[in-house]
Amino acid sequence: MGQTISKKIISWYKKHQRSLPWRSYTSSSDRDYKVLLSEFMLQQTKVSTVVPYFNKFYKKFRTIKALSKSRITSVLKLWEGLGYYRRARNLHQTAKLVLQKHNGKLPDSFSDLKNLPGIGDYTASAILSIAKDQSFIGIDGNVKRVISRVFNLKHNKKLLLSIEKKLNSMKVKKGSSELMQGIMELGALLCLPTRPGCTKCPIKSHCISFKKNTFKDRAKKKSYQIKYFNAFFITKNNKILFSFNKKFNFLQGLVNLPLVEVATNKHNATINKVFKKGLISSSSAPLVKYKMSNFVMHIKVISLSNVIFNKTKYFWLGQKDIKKFTISTLAKKLLQVSSNHEK
Question: Among 39, 164, 178, 185, which one carries the catalytic annotation?
């Protein structure tokens, strides 16, 4: 039955696949690069969000070699707003290693790919399947949902093993690229977490969950830890005080407002821990909530004046200067809130 299902998925995918920029290529090397770039960008990010960033990035860096020769500051600037900036750093480092160790060609072995920064089991499998047409199927959220529903698998500790066994029965000698993309496309377009479009599904006659009407959104609502911060909004002569973040990994290397983590939701002002001197210039401080991948930031934005600071850690930027730096999405939100609050 596995092979029959695969053939139907491939046939459906060829007719109904979305037109995405990384699915159009001029050569095998262009395909490798586009798949690599798209897989990095799509980690924890929606397709609709990625498309404009992909187009802008690809327009600037057309090949792995061009990317490897670029400056990380240029890469981060193009990535600005996409978030999870570690992906950009890993992609840049991967491009350098591909040029140094693999003559500029993306490796075609699982172990070699896994040795590159930012590439885990899923990404390695996706690259080998989609770009190299090898018999691999990476398990992302869409694949997991489609396969567990088709075979009505139990959601327990052995679920991934069960999915892998079913996928092994579905692997094909030719068309692995279309098969993996087809399964993911089914999950993205029809086999949705809620209200799946079963009537249009090409494999509904083989879907045990459809036959038994056992569809349920089994996804658990993710719980997020709350962390508390103070951010400081300081202006002087139409300039704003910034710092290069070196403390928080999730903002590594990005320009941000001065930021410090605090212990409780009381948001005690920690001015003396950041600056040698500073006066609170506003009696009220707006609260900004910002969701990261595994926690939520609650940030009190404190306006200060008469600040004395370490000039090696902090610096003034005017509006024209700000555009030259990679400003975190968080910083942009803090600036917007701060500016509106000051009016």
Answer: 39
Tell me: do 170 and 301 sit in the same domain.
Answer: no
Model pLDDT for residues 82-125, shown as the tens digit of each residue: 888 889 999 999 999 999 999 999 999 999 999 999 999 999 99
Domain that holds residue 289: 225-342
Q: Are strands 225-236 and 239-244 parallel, antiparallel or unpaired?
A: antiparallel
CA angle 218, 141, 22 (to 5 degrees): 150
- 129-154 pLDDT per residue, tens: 999 999 999 999 999 999 999 999 98
Out of 153, 179, 212, a domain closes at: 212
Q: What is the CATH number of the domain that holds 309?
A: 3.90.79.10
On whether both 256 and 149 belong to a single domain, the answer is no
Question: 159: which residues sit within 8 A by CB, 6+ positions away?
Answer: 144, 148, 153
- Say whether both 243 and 181 belong to one domain: no
Q: Which residues pair with 227 in a beta bridge?
A: 297
Number of C-beta neighbours around residue 171 at 10 A: 17
- Examine the residue annotation and report whether 342 is marked as an active-site residue of this protein: no
List the end-to-end C-alpha distance of the chain, in Å, as a whole number: 66
Q: Is 338 helix (H, G, I), strand (E, B) or coil?
A: helix
The reply to whether the predicted model has a pTM over 0.90 is: no
Extended beta strands in 86-167, E state: none
CA dist 169 and 163 (Å) reads: 10
> Does residue 204 lie in a domain region?
yes
Q: How far apart are CA 195 and CA 215, in angstroms?
A: 9
Total number of domains in the chain: 2
